[in-house]
Amino acid sequence: MLTNKHIAQVLSKPMLQKFGVVLALVFLLAACSPKLDWRTVQSPQEAYSALFPGKPEKIERRLPYQNQEIPQTLEAVKIDDDIYSVSAIRFSKDQVSLAPNLLEQLQGNLFSRANVNQQSAVSVEALYRTANKQRAATKDYFLEFKSSGRIEQSMRVRWITRMTPDNGAWIYQVSVLHTASARVDAKTFFSEEAYSNFFDEFHPE
Asked: Rounded distance, CA 23 to CA 202, Å?
């Protein structure tokens, strides 16, 4: 499982500075592959609940961005070839103007790795449900990354922005990263129930 030493090593990686948090954890989590065990994880500090297929590890850090330090957390669990993760970035009232540009960079980093842009990426319109049962629109993207040797990676990812009662904001990145030797059709593969459940049961406040 993750140790303090492992966490320190991961947080020092340049990839994290480019917001590729999930991808940086592929090899770190390789030894942590519990059996499928769905459980609801409450994260009151990050203002969400999520249904994970195992007990997630949690990493907290301060994200340097435009001379600011923005709190970020990542909860993730590896099940066989898949990493299920929720990243939460918190903007205070004074930082909220930074949110659109940071979101654009988050998205652009992944789109670039998949050699697509926001318009050409495979996507579907989706709905998510908040903690108080309200429904809101979002979009799921299905990305296939450039292969590296014998490794093929694909991802289903969505981004959700929520305002806070004190006029701050959250940016959530909900994703599953699949790493294996064989290529898959991302949209077909991630439409399976085990993946849909993870996305459907993410509920921000």
From this structure: 20
